[in-house]
Each structure stands twice: as structure tokens, then as C-alpha cells.
User: What shape does this take?
Amino acid sequence: MRIGKKTDAASATGSLFARIAYIVNTIIPTLQKPRGLHGAPGSFTTALTTYQTALSITGKGRLVYLAASTHSNSTGAVIIEIDGASVCMGSIGTTSGVLWFPDNSFPISYSGTFTSSGNSHLDLSFKESLVIQLKCNQGIGANVCWQYEDE
Amino acid sequence: MKFFIVPVNNGLLDIDYADLVEGIQTTATECYVKLRDIAAIRDTWLGITEEQFETVKANMIQPPE
Assistant: This one.
């Protein structure tokens, strides 16, 4: 392999300088950028019995945690969409306030009531978009809280 | 923080969700929101006070029975 010149055009198969330029221009921008401590926490409450969009953002990032809860004697449901695909269609239970992930098979959030919400560490990365939808089956009230980090 | 009543269209709030801190949806067509200070205000929003927001929140989120 020849060394070439600094002015060589970026190329994956060219001179050494061309290959370095290729790496800098093409590969490095695709790598995960460092994330800071700053995150974006949020909360959404609805009494609607049809799915409402609690959060809808675009870009690359990570859903750090999520917690869901309902009023006593009511149930709800949450959908998490990552890059346009549904990764969770969980229910919020009546007595324990558990959000099951995914598809009612694994509990991720024990929160009981509005006044004693817990949260679960999810660490779900997204490359293009993140959407959280929420509904309350009895029309009384359901809540979801989250924190995400974006690049 | 800023406080508004914003429209809801087919379950989607008329906001930039990156600015959302807290939302309390009372009907299918409107939602009370607390937004970050950097939020760009839209003509379709109705400004409210923090006290009004907290009142709606308190009425919506009751202690468990």
C-alpha cells in the first residue's frame, strides 16, 4: 500500500491517506457519540380509553427508564415503539400497577398508584424515533413517566 | 417552565415533544402541559398559570382508595 498524499480523495481502497480520510468521513460519524448526564424526564396522564401519544421524538438516543401507574381499581396499557416498530404492548395491572414487558410476560415496572410510582431501568436504544402511547381502560386515569437521553 | 392548554389531534399533542415535561390530558381534544422554557409558542396554544395547571393535575390524580 502506498502512503499517498494528504490531498488524496477519501477511498476505502486507495492510499493510506485516502483510507484515513475514508474512516474519518464515513465510519466515525456512524459511531455512538458520548452521552452527557443531561436527560429528558417527562410525565403524561390521560383518562382517555383510546391510545394517546405521551411521547414522540426523533433522532438517536436511549430510553433510560419508564414507569406506569393507574388509579386504584383501574387498568391501562402502554405501547413503546422504537424506530417505528412496537417493542412493548404492556398492560398496567389493577392491584400491583405492574407494566409487563413485552406482551405481558415480564414485569418492568411496579408502581401501584399515582402517589407511589416506581420505575424500571430499560436501556432501550433507538436510532430514528421513540414513541410512547398510553390509554386507561376505565376512563379514570393512567400515568406514564420516562427519562430518555439523546445524542 | 411554561404552561399551556394545547390541542390534541387524533391522540397526538400539538407540541414538540422534546419540550414536554408533564402532560395532563383531560379530553380527547385538549391537554394541559408543562413545557421547557425553550419551547416555541404556537398560535393554537392557550397560556395558563402554574396554579391552573396544578389544580387540573390535583383533580386528575387522586390518592388511591
